[in-house]
Automatic annotation (TrEMBL):
Start and end residues of each Enoyl reductase (ER) domain: 12-301
Lineage of the species this protein comes from: Bacteria, Bacillati, Actinomycetota, Actinomycetes, Propionibacteriales
GO MF: oxidoreductase activity
Protein known as: NADP-dependent oxidoreductase
Organism superkingdom: Bacteria
SMART domains linked to this entry: PKS_ER (SM00829)
Organism: Kribbella capetownensis
Length: 305
């Protein structure tokens, strides 16, 4: 099969190559999926899980890409709940070969059925951004209707999901970003926009839930805005600043079939819009990831038309 591999951590994305690799075999409780569309996170080459397995052994050359949508082609021993020919989407294990390949072996529990009317590119755009937003707001942030959410990076892949899901849950959403992001953030449903480059963040007042996608100084300033009993949720590494009278949680997104199904149902009935940026073929993928063009929204690699 054709796959993109990375072999040299120091080379980063520039070290990516499109090569021939053996097709993966399904292990216990796995399925093999013929990948139709794949998502890739630009920072993957910096993650230790791209370079080692769970026992810490070197696994290069490794295949990046952790979001996928495709069709099940075979089942491993003991696999239940999915069948050959089924359309699926989901989140591939951080420590295994991923979805920038024509086929991927993946635990069935990491996948959910992809409804017939939902395009593979849409399916591949949802797992990381949708699950991160869902888990941050509801599992870790325990968001309630009527609360306020400060959604940083609200024009980005995760931020647009945070904004929409928080809005649907009855929260008051203040989205942040750069000046050029204002219309997009308001269009995705934020009630207010804060331009982090020129507006005073401190003017937003007391916040119940800060969803941090930026970190550093923005995180420190945001922690000070959290009301008593409120929560700072971050996905950009260990917490650097804690709210005085609230909780702080940082987490890495996990696969969850029930949540994937909730998310795709919302896409199907129009409650949730995706934020897909560039769509490229596998042949163009390495050039796309190495482009000097600033990629906005979720980049999707389409492996089959
Ligand atoms: N721990 C986890 O499980 C997890 C899961 C998903 C994502 N993440 C992390 O979360 C972050 C966001 O992911 P994403 O996919 O949503 O990225 P993205 O699509 O690039 O969105 C980030 C948004 O934040 C904006 N932004 C960044 N720094 C800013 C600043 N200083 N001032 C104003 N706006 C700023 C970006 O604007 P520009 O494009 O103009 O810079 C962009 O609109 C990444 O670091 C990613 O690795 C972690």
């Amino acid at each position: 099969m054709r796959a993109i591999v990375v072999t040299d951590q120091a080379a980063g994305t520039a070290g990516m190559t499109l090569v021939e690799r053996p097709e993966p075999q399904p292990a216990i409780n796995d399925v093999v999926v013929e990948v139709h569309a794949s998502g890739y996170v630009p920072t993957e080459v910096e993650w230790s899980s791209t370079w080692s397995d769970r026992a810490g052994r070197d696994r290069a050359p490794s295949i990046p890409g952790h979001e996928l949508a495709g069709v099940v082609t075979s089942l491993g021993y003991g696999t239940t709940g999915l069948s050959v020919g089924q359309r699926v989407f989901g989140l591939a294990d951080w420590h295994r070969d991923g979805s920038l390949a024509e086929y991927v072996a993946i635990e069935a529990r990491n996948l959910a059925p992809l409804p017939g009317g939902v395009d593979f590119s849409v399916g591949a755009s949802l797992p990381i951004s949708g699950l991160t937003a869902w888990q941050g707001l509801f599992d870790h942030g325990r968001l309630q209707a009527g609360q306020s959410v400060l959604a940083h990076g609200a024009a980005g892949a995760v931020g647009t999901m945070v904004t929409q899901l928080a809005n649907e849950a009855g929260a008051y959403v203040i989205g942040t970003g750069r000046a050029a992001d204002r219309d997009k953030v308001l269009d995705f449903g934020a009630q207010e926009f804060v331009d982090l480059e020129t507006d005073a963040l401190e003017d937003v007042g007391g916040i119940d839930l800060v969803f941090d996608l930026i970190g550093a100084d923005i995180q420190k300033r945001s922690a000070a805005l959290i009301k008593t009993g409120g929560t700072l949720v971050s996905v950009v590494g260990p917490i650097e600043a804690r709210p005085a009278e609230g909780l702080a949680v940082d987490f890495v997104v996990e696969a969850n079939r029930a949540q994937l199904s909730e998310i795709v149902q919302r896409v199907r009935d129009g409650r949730l819009r995706t934020n897909i940026g560039k769509v490229a073929t596998l042949d163009d993928a390495v050039a796309t990831f190495n482009s000097t063009e600033r990629l906005k929204g979720k980049t999707i690699i389409r492996l089959r038309p």
